[in-house]
Fold this protein.
Amino acid sequence: MTWHSHSWLCRRQIKKQHSQEWPCHLDWKNSMTIFGLTSGAKHQPGSEQRRGPVLPRRVVAVALAALAVSGGCQAAGQAERPSPQSRGIDSPSAPAGCKAIIDRARQTAASALHDADEELKLARDLAACREYSEAIAACRRVLAAHPGDRNAEIQIARLLSWDHRYDESIRAFRNILHSHPDDPEAMEGLAEAQVWSGKAADAAVTYGRLVAAHPANPDYLFDAARLEAEAHRYPAARDRLASLLAIQPGNLDARLLLAQLELKEGQYSSSARQFVRVLDQRPRDPAALMGAAQAHYYTGGLERAYTEASTLVAQQPRNFDALFLLAAIERARGHLYRARVLLNRAERLSPHNPEAEELREKLRQQSSTVLHTTVGYSREIGGPGYAGAAPSPIDEDLRSFTYASALDFTTFPRSNSTFSWNTLPSESPAGIIGGAAAPTEFLYRQTTRLTSRLTLRGGAGLEHFGGGVPVDLPNGVGPQPSATNTPIGFIGGSFAPASHISIDLTLTRAGIAYTPLAVRLGVVSIRTESGVNITFDPRTDLHLTYFREHFTTERYEQLTGRANPRSSEPATTDSSDQESGSGGTMALSHRFIDRERVALDAGYSMTVFGYDGARRSVYLGFFTPNFYQRELFNTRLSGHFTRRFGYDFSQGVGLQQVGYHEAAKRALLMSPTLTFKATPWLNTSIGYTHYDSAQTLGIVRGNGVRLGIDYRIP
């Protein structure tokens, strides 16, 4: 029998009792089995990167814990198994004379005459002393003297369940219902026995019969909803609660259970509203505080979540789950020191807790300084000529290297900062892009969370194209100085008007170093991009972007294609090449499998863009067609083989088209990666990528390998 079921029965018996009740104690920590969840509930690998902050598994389970029972059934100290009672047998709160009662029962049993009322009173006293076998014997003597006595039959069935003889109790209740099919007391007793025996689904069916016979009875509706929820039949439970709240809009227990169901199903905004309505009437209700804190956390209301979780910790300072939740909220608010202090308090209550250790590792990763290094090599061979680019890079052979380093740190409040250094040597033995170049990029970037809804991002740095040595440029008048340096940077932000929607806007100035020719020209991109991110549920995301981009080169002397009328020499001009375009992307992803060691995502993506360079015979050294479209069906399988070895296999298969009237061709992307955690401070990865489209040469045969090392400075 679950602790949730104990809470339910305790509340029911308080409503039934006509005299003093036996003490009924609940324990918050041990009531986590509602809906079948425990601290080992599912975990989504990499979910924090995909969808923002995610509460730890234990907090998710605790938010669905059993209701704190009001009216005399309060959470208290050490939990003990509550003793069942009936409305027919009143129980003294402290049966002091149990020995005398047992002696009297034995004398009565030996007597030839049995008074039914005295026997039932004796059975009541024996039950109060927890002498269930003797109490059952007393009731059976009444039944022997008065065959068919319904009260005696019901008390026997109920006493059997109290004596943990659940199967016998269920059979006894069913026998009563065979003779009295519509007996509500027998059906209630049957449901109680089924709950105690762990048969919540059967109990839900029994209460369904009670609701069908008494559709306006609020107790039956509530109990049926609770049992439907425990049997994981959430739509049926919501229907019961809707009927109950239509009858009793002020029923806070029903509203609290509805809020917990909505929280379980990811309806965070609606769940938060229900929890708040409960807190308006019961501001110190621990279950409502816990649920409201979690719901507001998921909807981005970190300040409200902090207030509610702090209130819960203040009234229950030794509640591990409340401390754990507050630590997770403080981490999301960027208060890492406070989160560590709260986590220390929680771990003193539950040493070596795996969920606490996981959260501590995340805090350590978030607050430490990390050095990322990446080494990569790729080779791309251009395919046959394609429409929409002038001139077409037929059979180009581009070989590129990557040497990159980045230092992540969290020096500033509510901010993540990065210093990065990248060098991208590339060479092509022949063709219009032929030659070699080794550009270098230096960049500082920072992300600051101003509020739970507003995040600002910015960065500044320098792109070093080369030393300015004389080189031949397209349409140039003899050797021209190559590009040297240009400032780069970006500014942008994200705003979340609702918990499931965020809007991005970014303005970027960046150096384009795709090919040696682009480096010699010193191509700079000015790009404005907007985006919308929609989370339909915790497993499904939609991302939409639109951008406008303008490319420009450094000024150099070039031929105009006309003759100088004064000298009959070819006319020249000192100008830069320019090109503009726009495009957009769409990506839909759904997580189909979400387990501790494996996650499977699948979805659809589309990319569309076009530039005006081909129409004006401008070629800047990389792929800028007048029209390009690619559609892919994507899958990603990620997880861990062991605690040290992990994997991430991504692929996309679809079609791509270059030019408005060209035939579509196959598009393919495959990228397997293996990871190895050598120590708590050192992670390595090695990956391979095969692709057939890139903004360097367009449709290509491309292959690349990469090695990454992440070192977390202790």
Summary: The chain is about 35% helix and 35% strand. The domain at 85-186 is CATH 1.25.40.10 (Serine Threonine Protein Phosphatase 5, Tetratricopeptide repeat). The first strand starts at residue 369 and ends at 382. The two ends are 47 Å apart (CA to CA).
